[in-house]
Design brief:
The structure holds 2 protein chains of 2 kinds. In chain A, about 25% of the residues lie in helices and about 35% in strands. In chain A, about 25% of the residues are buried. By secondary structure, chain A is an alpha+beta fold. In chain A, strands 2-3-1-4 form a 4-stranded antiparallel sheet. Chain B is about 15% helix and about 30% strand. In chain B, the strands form 5 sheets. In chain B, strands 1, 10, 12, 17, 18, 19 and 21 form a 7-stranded antiparallel sheet that branches. In chain B, strands 2, 3, 4, 5, 6 and 7 form a 6-stranded antiparallel sheet that branches. A 4-stranded antiparallel sheet of chain B has the order 13-16-15-14. The radius of gyration of chain B is 18 Å and the shape is globular. Classes of the chains: A alpha+beta, B alpha+beta. Chains A and B meet through loops of A and loops of B.
């Protein structure tokens, strides 16, 4: 069952913009610390059939500024 | 928040149970049927690897954490590595011998084990916070849901609403593919929990609303679940008690029979200290069943009738 929910996050018009945002977060936080580290990315992005998005958490504010309300699709 | 309020839990004062048990009393040595063994303690006398790998928030460095001489998670090493800030679990190593490790490579999805320098615990035993979309996955494809399997998990829920005690998701979505189909089970407090019709690994209590569930969860202390499912469209058992129903009728869909083939979260929400999955049925009152119940119940201070 797919369900739409509203959350704070960041909206992107293209997939590349979402990837670039995550890259900026990874650079800022130094992820990954080494090639063999388990942690390879700070967060992931999604697509809700209209736009790409990243779900907000407070660690992102310093790079991505203030979040907005976005619609995300979860697979319940 | 610094973890589960200790007042919620009944502290075990029998320090002897925290000593490492004889090799043949560890769960993986009680039976050779273990398929997955995730725990924050040693559960296999033949396993020499780390229990978990953690990432600290200060600099994102990662470190494997082993068991100490008593078979418990080496908390000293963990806290020396992360005396302040947060520590997240990036890997939960499988002690079964099959190396079916669970992992999470995305930082903001990793379970928390230390928050603001404080270790999460259940009854003084370390626990992982898997709330807020934090989870671990694995990519094992070597088993089929038509198999009969049993599991035991030590899990604490502190959120309202229906809960997952354990979940195996596939690409078709949880409502169609949750493999654990508990019909009902009796908690240590005597409450009857039943599964939500459309979410088969979730449960509600006494058919009640969210408030009832929450009350149940708050007063339940750590819950020990041991149940199994037997093939597709067959009978499901909790703690060895058969509660047969036709999972192919009504609102409860049939079990999937295809192999688990994608990265999947196999842990429920809430706080989890242990999840062990067995090949086959563990029969009620069998020696294996009793030994496992004793082992887990004593270690986590969980009372269950045998």
């Amino acid at each position: 069952m797919l369900e739409n929910i509203t959350q704070l996050g960041y909206r992107f018009n293209t997939e590349q913009e979402a990837k670039d945002a995550i890259h900026a977060l990874n650079v800022y936080y130094g992820i990954p610390v080494s090639p063999d580290a388990t942690t390879q990315t700070w967060c992931n992005y999604g697509y809700n059939n209209e736009y790409w998005y990243i779900v907000w958490d407070e660690s992102m504010n310093i790079i991505l500024a203030e979040p907005i309300e976005i619609i995300i699709i979860i697979n319940e | 928040m610094n973890g589960i309020p200790n007042s919620t839990w009944q502290k075990n004062t029998d320090e002897a149970v925290f000593n490492i048990p004889a090799n043949n009393s560890l769960i993986c040595n009680i039976t050779d049927k273990v398929m997955f063994a995730y725990s924050l303690r040693l559960v296999n006398a033949n396993y020499n690897g780390a229990l978990i790998r953690v990432r600290r928030s200060r600099d994102n460095a990662e470190l494997d954490i082993y068991a100490d001489q008593f078979g418990k998670l080496d908390i000293k090493t963990l806290q020396d590595f992360c005396p302040t800030g947060n520590a997240f679990v990036t890997r939960w190593y499988d002690q079964s011998g099959f190396a079916r490790n669970a992992f999470q490579g995305t930082a903001n999805s990793q379970p928390i084990i230390i928050l603001n320098g404080v270790l999460y615990t259940i009854n003084g035993v370390p626990s992982l916070n898997m709330n807020s979309n934090r989870f671990l996955t694995h990519t094992t494809t070597a088993f089929d849901w038509s198999m009969t399997m049993s599991l035991v998990t030590v899990n604490y829920q502190n959120q309202s609403g229906t809960k997952n005690v354990c979940q195996f998701l596939t690409s078709l979505g949880a409502s169609n593919n949750l493999a654990i189909s508990t019909q009902n089970f009796i908690s240590p407090t005597g409450n009857i929990a039943t599964t939500s019709p459309s979410f088969r690994s979730r449960y509600t209590v006494n058919g009640g609303a969210t408030a009832d569930v929450q009350a149940f969860l708050l007063r339940s202390n750590p819950l020990l679940y041991m149940f199994y499912w037997a093939g597709s469209n067959t009978i499901n058992f909790i703690n060895g008690l058969g509660n047969g129903f036709d999972s192919g009728s009504g609102s409860i869909p049939a079990f999937p029979s295809s192999s688990l083939s994608i990265s999947s979260n196999i842990f429920g929400l809430g706080f989890t200290s242990e999840l062990i999955i067995f090949d086959g049925q563990i029969h009620l009152q069998s020696e294996t069943y009793i030994n496992i119940i004793k082992n887990v119940g004593k270690y986590y201070s969980i009372g269950l009738p045998i």
